[in-house]
Design brief:
Layout lengths: L5 E3 L3 H7 L15 E4 L7 E5 L4 E4 L6 E7 L4 H16 L4 E7 L5 H9 L7 E4 L20 E5 L5 E6 L7 H11 L3
Length: about 180
């Protein structure tokens, strides 16, 4: 069984630019971006795409990857996925967004859910092999729904935020920029 990661909440004095090692604060009404220590490299994930094809998803060097874990029953996911689709559309050359349905492998149910919300060109998968959340070695823990993990340009999982996050906000942009500048 994998050792649990230490969760670190950025203190406002560090995160507001007084300490360049701490990312800027990014928060929702109920949650804020939480750092993970130790940071581990994202392992390749064996998933299934919406066409029923098995794929292996990895973090690409030099790019930020957001790994979003969601469910078809989740009301907040109906808000979060369109924001992630907009983010992917506006920053596609600098950012990868991977969304993983965690509650069902029923591709028709997933497609029906996605057809009911404004998402286009969003990389959606199902965790049919429990690669993302089901194994004891997984570093993607569901702490709420949805949960979005940020994987930095070096391929390490930096932290996460739960709930529908405003990635298109100035605070979201600052957090993404901070991790783009990390080596």
């Amino acid at each position: 069984m994998a050792a649990p990661a230490l969760l670190v909440t950025p203190r406002a004095s560090h995160a507001q630019g007084k300490d360049p090692a701490w990312p800027p604060v990014f928060e929702t009404v109920r949650s804020q971006f939480t750092l993970l220590e130790p940071r581990v490299t994202m392992a390749p994930l064996r998933l299934r795409d919406l066409h029923g094809k098995d794929v292996v998803v990895t973090a690409k060097p030099g790019r930020i990857t957001l790994v979003n874990l969601w469910a078809t029953w989740c009301a907040a996911c109906r808000e979060d996925l369109p924001v992630l689709a907009s983010l992917a559309g506006s920053q596609g050359s600098q950012l990868d967004v991977v969304t993983i349905c965690t509650d069902t492998a029923d591709l028709q149910k997933i497609r029906t859910f996605l057809d009911s919300i404004p998402v286009q060109n969003l990389a959606c998968y199902t965790d049919v092999y429990k690669a993302a959340t089901g194994s004891s070695a997984s570093v993607f823990t569901l702490t709420g729904m949805p949960t979005t993990y940020l994987v930095g340009t070096g391929g390490r999982i930096e932290g996460y935020i739960t709930g529908a996050a405003e990635w298109l906000s100035p605070a979201g942009a600052r957090l993404l920029q901070f991790y783009r500048e990390q080596i």
